[in-house]
Design brief:
By secondary structure, the protein is an alpha/beta fold. The chain has one domain: 3 Solenoid (Pectate Lyase C-like), CATH 2.160.20.60. It has 3 helices and 11 strands; from the N terminus they run βαβββββββββαβα. The longest helix is centred in the C-terminal third of the chain and has 18 residues. The chain is globular and about 50 Å long. The termini are far apart.
């Protein structure tokens, strides 16, 4: 089923999506999307949603199981508190992607903005995974409490940094994998760097194969020596400031 989003207010577009799902539709295509917010927010059914255009803020917020393909860029807050499902952005995405994300997958072909992965968390066998094909801005993985962030830098120009400053500031769980070098001054005081172990590469290579299949980007030439692993020094980095 196709829906033409031209000129539709975001409330009207979301109402049409929910009506279609309630009527039994499990595959929708949205054409001419232009900044409409909250698309697929809170949906918990096996919906496959293809978006042609640029969705607005909070795409897939609180989503619990749908699959979204964005044939274009996406604005801020993709996957805000997302609980389950898959979001694929075939362009660039904005700030706070994966904010408080609890599980599921977000794959971005291009680059992302500021504070990506902030407050990501995991529990048991549920963990969020974000893989970005391009670059990231400041505060990548800020206050991260769980899950996995992977930054590939596949489109990085020689004179640009893979990521901005204060990577992992306040981080107290999870892991960040960076393909390429960063300077010590770019890292938050709460994280340390290390090379990948065999177990790390076993997991990462599986995730990269999934990313490559879904996004249609070749990652077969990547090697464990290409990557740097960032993990937190402590699970309570600010405990001494707030407790005695």
């Amino acid at each position: 089923m196709r829906i033409d989003a031209s000129g539709l207010h975001y409330r009207d577009l979301n109402a049409r999506i929910r009506d279609a799902v309630a009527a039994g539709q499990r595959e929708l295509i949205l054409d001419h999307v232009n900044g409409q917010r909250y698309l697929s927010a809170g949906l918990n059914l096996g919906l496959r949603l293809t978006i042609n255009g640029v969705p607005g803020n909070d795409l897939a917020a609180f989503m619990d199981g749908a699959e979204i393909i964005v044939n274009g860029n996406a604005q801020d807050g993709v996957g805000n508190a997302m609980n389950r499902g898959l979001v694929v952005v075939r362009g660039n995405a904005g700030d706070i992607l994966g904010y408080s994300m609890r599980s599921g997958r977000i794959f971005v072909q291009g680059s992302v903005g500021y504070r990506v992965g902030i407050h990501m968390k995991s529990f048991g066998d549920q963990f969020p995974l974000i893989i970005v094909g391009g670059l990231a801005r400041d505060f990548l993985g800020e206050y991260m409490a769980g899950g996995v962030l992977v930054l590939l830098g596949l489109t990085k120009p020689k004179d640009e940094s893979l990521a901005g400053n204060r990577i992992g500031t306040g981080m107290h769980g999870g892991v960040i994998y960076l393909r390429g070098a960063v300077e010590d001054y770019q890292l938050g005081k709460e994280v340390g760097r290390s090379p990948l172990t065999d177990a790390d590469w076993q997991d990462l290579s599986l995730w990269l194969a999934e990313y490559s299949h879904v996004v249609d980007v070749d990652t077969s030439t990547l090697r464990p020596s290409d990557f740097l692993k960032l993990t937190p020094h402590s699970r309570r980095p600010y405990g001494a400031l707030y407790a005695y």
